[in-house]
Amino acid sequence: xxxxxxxxxxxxxxxxxxxxxxxxxxxxxxxxxxxxxxxxxxxxxxxxxxxxxxxxxxxxxxxxxxxxxxxxxxxxxxxxxxxxxxxxxxxxxxxxxxxxxxxxxxxxxxxxxxxxxxxxxxxxxxxxxxxxxxxxxxxxxxxxxxxxxxxxxxxxxxxxxxxxxxxxxxxxxxxxxxxxxxxxxxxxxxxxxxxxxxxxxxxxxxxxxxxxxxxxxxxxxxxxxxxxxxxxxxxxxxxxxxxxxxxxxxxxxxxxxxxxxxxxxxxxxxxxxxxxxxxxxxxxxxxxxxxxxxxxxxxxxxxxxxxxxxxxxxxxxxxxxxxxxxxxxxxxxxxxxxxxxxxxxxxxxxxxxxxxxxxxxxxxxxxxxxxxxxxxxxxxxxxxxxxxxxxxxxxxxxxxxxxxxxxxxxxxxxxxxxxxxxxxxxxxxxxxxxxxxxxxxxxxxxxxxxxxxxxxxxxxxxxxxxxxxxxxxxxxxxxxxxxxxxxxxxxxxxxxxxxxxxxx
Length: 504
Description:
Distance between the termini: 55 Å
Helix content: 25-40%
Structural class: alpha/beta
Number of helices: 14
């Protein structure tokens, strides 16, 4: 039985001529325009040899064409693989070798670099620019796809692979099916009361679960409109509030909006919902926003492997610091990390989830997949937390020392390997430190080789050549030695305590 993520693309034929996407310059596309645009991109994929099940990697800047590529890929039965535009060649090389895509779509200015990398895996390279330029855009524009039929898929077929941090420092490809994505989008449409009357301000990136699956999928399945902004700019977002109803953002969005004096009850009076996720929202930010606008931000909890798991209620108390109860159809529990034994109310342990939203496994990593699930099907998130007497989930920490900065995951080992390879460095430890703007900031504690005097600016400059900008430490702190326990393991908890006030 078919259960395609974008079955029919539009939930109601009567929406065809209604506005679907509004661009920053005020121009717009209807639902019919989106349907035909995605059909042309799907047909273009088939024209260059992409078959159902093939991976299509994309490192492109945010644009309407990028949306068409994503949906077109899914409609063609291929598996979409979005790549952060900040990734450097060394990072891209790993992703292409691991995923083995049949096609790589890159921004025109990245073509030469991408061709050098793709040549090693035999992938074809096409280009797609933000103004409808590029070889793939030209091909799609030339095709008549009026009779295009979406390729039949089942709920268990893969729709996307998103890479997430792994225990060894190497990212793992989370395999997400049509059933995973469709079920989560439908759950959120219901939980957040989305309808075709809504207009969502979309200022998130398109290579991340939040902007790609939560925002885009929910809006499309609800038949809502989207104000499609290239990036987050507080002034632009405030300007659009009079024509919109919902904003989805990371905590940074809200701290920066609070810095703008134009954010008032009057400015936000036409909005019905503000949603925050991808990183912890400080309780102080929650309270300050409510005092200024009269709106309580709705915080939720999700991850690359599962989509959204919990949410503060649309109707009911939105508790600062909590991510709310489990969403409908999803089970959340807290267990003793080693044994997996269930824990009681307010007991702190490992957060585990089970539901139709949970990934099918990690790409080409059966052992990692097996280690991530309990025998009864619960997925081990790696996040530590508790569930209170009202069923609200509280995230209290993370296993494996994962850092979430500005909504992006950074696994310390990736950064440590690059720092340790630098001249004059003996060893390093990377931690996350509280930051009012980014939630957490990446900080590196460095032990120099004897006689060496590491230069903070030089280390950061070197790392910028090797790592995506969000992974580069905001500060380098030089110390004589790292704190260790009796087993010689670095005690990062002590480092986090020592430097907790670094950005205050």
